[in-house]
Each structure stands twice: as C-alpha cells, then as structure tokens.
Amino acid sequence: MRLVSEGPSPRLNAMCGIVGYVGQRSSSEVLMSGLARLEYRGYDSAGVAIVSDSGSLVSHKRAGKLGVLAEDLANSPLESGSTGIAHTRWATHGAPTDANAHPHLADDGKLALIHNGIIENFHELKEQLVASGETFSSDTDSEVAAVLLGIAYRESRDLTQAMVNVVGRLEGAFTLLIVHEDAPGVVVGARRNSPLVIGVGEGENFLGSDVAAFVAYTHKALALGQDQIVTITKDSIDVMSFEGEVVHPPEFTIDWDASAADKGGWSSFMAKEISEEPEAVANTLRGRLSPEGEVTIPELDSLDVSLIDRVIFIACGTAAYAAMLGAYAMEKWSGIPVTVELSHEFRYRDPVVGAGTLVVSVSQSGETMDTLMAVRYANELGAQTLAICNTQGATIPRESDATLYTHAGPEVAVASTKAFLSQTIAVYLLGLYLGGHRGFVSAELAAQTAQDLHNLPGQIQEMVSTGPRIKELAGWMADTRSVLYLGRHVGYPVALEGALKLKELAYIHAEGFAAGELKHGPIALIEPGQIVFVMVPSPRDPSSLHNKVVSNIQEIRARGARVIAIAEKGDAAVLPYADEVIAIPPASPFMEPLLSVVPLHIFGMELAAAKGLDIDQPRNLAKSVTVE
Ligand code: F6R
After folding, report:
1. Would you list the DSSP string of 463-503?
2. Tell me: the pLDDT tens digits for 44-61?
C-alpha cells in the first residue's frame, strides 16, 4: 500500500474495487455485496450499471461512501437484471464527484464502463475524440476508454471484439469491465498491470479486483493473466490474449471463507487481524515443518536449489521489514549470502544477478506495482524468482517461478499486521529449507528451531492479551508528537515496523533506529519526555547484545527519555531504567521479534483509536498500490 488520491496527479493511483456479474440472481445484490467486501481497498465514490431484464442499461453513481449509493438505490431501485458491473473509485483524474464516479456511459448511454488504473495517454486520445465531435461528461481518463469502446462496439457489434480493438490504443495500467444493453448476459473485462480475477459459479460467473468480491458465492476461481481479455456469460468463460489467442487460465480454490473477511464483532478489521496473529503464524507453518525440523514445501520444487548462491529479497514497507527480519535467520541457517532491497530501489539500479541468484519477493497483496516491476526485472536478468504472497490469484505469484503462500487469511485493514508475522515465518521456513538442502543446518538446530516455531502461536497469543495494558498506555499518550523505537539485530526491523505503524495509523512522527546507531546522530533527538520503545534482547542470549541495549537505555534515560522496554519476563537488568516494561515470554533470539512486534501493532492501533482516527483506512493510503 502507499500514497493515493487527493488531487489529479497522474502518479497517484486509483486502488478501485471492481465487480462484474452474470447469472440468475439479482445482479444489484451481488454487485453491492461485492463492493462492500472490496471497501477495504479505499475509495471515495461508487456506482453500479445493470443490463435490466427489459433490455435497457440502467446505472447510478454517487460520490461518498457505499452507504450513500445504497440509500439512493433503496429509495429508487434500479430496474432489476442479472448482468451488471460495479465500482468503487479512488479519485485520480478529477475530483471525487458524482460525475467523475464510475460507471461511465457511451454509445448513447447503451454501454457502461468501469476502470481501475491510469490511462496515461488519455490526453491525446481525448483531444482526438473531441476533435471528431465526441463529448465528455467527466474529467476522468476512464471516460476516454468508454467513448472509444462505444465507437468500437458500433463498428463491430461485438463486445469482445470492441475490447480487442481498443486495448491496443491504451497506454498505462488498467482493468476495464464493460456491459452493453444490446449484449445482455455478457460482461467483458481486460487487464494490463492491474488486477482482475474470475469467479467460476454454476449458472453464474463473476469478475473481481480480488476474490473477496465473490467469495460469498463461489470458491472456484481463475487468475486472469497480464494483457488478457475475458468474456463471461452465465454458462461460459472465454479468455484470450490482447492479440486474440485463446488462453486457458489456471484454476485455483479460494481457501478462506467469506466470514474471514467480515469484522465478526471486532471494533475494526485491524483489531480482528491482530487477534488472528497466532493463527496466521500457525497457518503459515501448517503441514510444512516436521518436529525434526524437516521442511516440506512442494511449491518450491520448481526452483533449482543447487544453483542458488545468493538470495535477494525485494519488498516494500512492512513486507520489507519482514524480509529484513527473516534474512537474519536465513543467512545463519542456510549459509547463503542474503540481502534485502526495497523493490523500487532494486529496479532502478543495475544489480549483478544471474541464474545463481534467487530473488524472493515478499508481498501480502501480490499486486504491489513496485514489487511486480522488480520481479519482472529479476526475471529479465535471468534470476530464479520466488514469491512469498498471501493472495491467491494475484499477479506477482503468476509471474514468478515459484510461490510460497503464507495462508494468513484475508488482511483487510490497510496497515499490515498479521501479514508481517506470517511473511517472517515464510522466510524462516525458506531459510530452513535451503539450509536443509545444503546440509548446512545441524539436526539439533533444525529440531530445536521446529520446536520454537511450533511454540510461537501460543506465545503470540500471550502477547495479544497484553492489549488492555497497551490500550491504557496509548490512552495516556494521545497528545504525543514523536515516538522513537530502538532495536538491535532482529530487534531493528521490529523497531522500523513499530515506527511505520505509528506513522500511518496515528499520524505521529515516529522513527525506528538500530540502537547501535544512537551515538552516531539520533541521540541528539532525545530530550526530556521523549518516548522511546526499546526492544531488549533476552539476558540469556549468548551474544552480549542484552548488555549493550541496557547501556543504550541508560544513555537515553540520562537525557530524560521515557523508556518503554519490551523485554523478557523477569529481566531484572532493565527494571531500574524503564518507565514501563512489556514482558515477553522466554523465547530464542529469532522468535523474540515475533513476540515484541505484537504490542507495537496494538500500540499503533490504540493510539489511533485514542485520537479518534479511522484505524482501518488511514488517510492517503490504500491497501494495495497497483501503480508505481
Ligand atoms: C504498512 C503496509 C505497507 C505494505 C506495503 C507492501 O502497514 O501495509 O507498508 O506492507 O505497501 O504491500 P504488499 O505486502 O501488499 O506488497
């Protein structure tokens, strides 16, 4: 996720939600429930278009939340029909107004289009269309595609052919869905650099930005590939490339239930997702790690492990911190050099990469454009590519040589929480897997690590139950303007993750530092009252890091900092210096960070709640960033 909306800059993206339906049900119901499940993607207007049973195209769209549209539709229902498309829009080109909302109509109101992404050449296309007498009723780039499709349909009288004729003229990123009143029972979609998944039903079929759009109706899905066009009717699904070649997309089963994407009585999706952190970790481990520490992941069979002499992780934000954390363990357990890079940095330098390099992308959504582009770049450079991903049917897994799914269940809150833990576990498993293949991990270490990992869900549950205490702390700090986070070794990525959560959820300035870096500059920030969270390694840790971090605490305390230490239960050394200690159960060094991060997730959420902010949809952010 990252920056979206507010103004019409072409670099800001629409993270829109898209739903399409053909079947026997009332499409209005299916479409509105699909949009509700896609709400988490972030949006500022919504709309729906239906080909009615009497054969006319009817539509309605409104700026504002889905409730505004739903109320209008309740007061003046659209004519019913069982074919339709619906959309939630994040404003990019043009303000979030009724007119700029989707669907956009063309061909004298007989064709409706919805669009996610950005049509980069819309200016020149619009100029040409205006010059030839076409008129526009919105400021959007999307309406240009609608008008082009209207013209193309008039020429071909075939909705799929119209799409084939138009996609070649569009530059940029797009998912497009169209319906036409002269083609009842048909929805046509196309995608380039923007997600679209097909839901396969019986006597009905679906399209969605992700499977959440239709999981309430079917668990069978097809992943539409890059530069492909799909035509659905109630009984058929036809897919072709932009060049018109028939394609058979791979089928997959959605392994979570519609109820998993509901709030289920929690005050926010984030509260629910933090409560699911133990389960997310258990799910990532399930069936993959024997008590002896042997890792079984058939999904990795397509990699040539014997070739791998280097691993590069590419990821953004929280996913990058999970990779950083996992990389410490992976290097130690596999003996392979491991580096971690932000996807958008990797892509714009000239990395030395070859067949011996395994490039591992980490992405909850599997749609983050920066990471997708970096994966493509790695593929071009001849690397082996592995995706660690949580979302089935997403683009990054499709474009990678192998995929390790985290199985954390749907993550709806914009800020990532349970995905961080499950991504780290996936990297740990990969480390043990590679170490096992290379004969680098001793049987004893493997068995001990397996035991530690299997103990984790229970220990994470203990951390989740620190919630009420953390809430109290957050309540006292609602006026805080700046919070620092310190950690060393595996505590460092946790410090970065804690700071990111606070920035994005509570809009408070926050920084994470490697504690050893303090004296090299950041200590100048410490003044009386400055709140500092410190990740304290276990006193049982054979390295001397515990003592070093306790010294750091003393240094900042001497300068007036208020210290909240996250330390092992019974660690007497921190007590004299900490204003507050959050105790974690004894765990091995690589497991500790997965415990200490939990109160930091809770803290970010509770501070946002104390400030009365929208926890699930922080300002300026959307769940998956599908453009650069
Ligand atoms: C922070 C957060 C983001 C994402 C990042 C990558 O809470 O959620 O930093 O981790 O945008 O997203 P994915 O994992 O979908 O590639």
Report:
1. HHTTHHHHHHHHHHTTT--EEEEEE-TTHHHHHHHHHHHHH
2. 899 999 999 999 999 999
Residue 598 has, within 13 A of its CA and on its CB side, a CA count of 32
The CATH number of domain 466-619 is 3.40.50.10490: yes
Among the atoms of ligand 1, which is closest to the Cα of residue 364? 14
Known catalytic membership, residue 263: no
Kind of pairing between the strands at 220-223 and 251-253: antiparallel
CA dihedral 468, 414, 288, 260 (to 10 degrees): 80
CA–CA dist 266, 412 (Å, integer): 13
Token look-up 């040589």 returns 401
Is 17-261's fold the same as 466-619's? no
pTM for this predicted structure: 0.82
Q: Whose CA is nearest to atom 13 of ligand 1?
A: 363
Q: 3-class SS at 321?
A: helix
Catalytic choice (16, 61, 110, 389): 16
One of 3.40.50.2300, 3.40.50.10490, 3.30.1330.60, 2.60.40.10 is the CATH number of 263-455, namely 3.40.50.10490
Give 29: exposed, middle or buried? Use CB within 10 Å, 0-12, 13-18, 19+: exposed
Residues 372-418: tens digit of each pLDDT: 999 999 999 999 999 999 998 889 999 999 999 999 988 999 999 99
How far apart CA 534 and CA 555 sit, in angstroms, is: 12
Spell out which residues line ligand 1, taking CB within 6 angstroms.
1-2, 316-319, 363-365, 368, 371, 415-416, 500, 504, 624-625
272 is known as an active-site residue: no
DSSP single-letter state for residue 247: E
CATH topology of domain 17-261: Glutamine Phosphoribosylpyrophosphate, subunit 1, domain 1 (3.60.20)
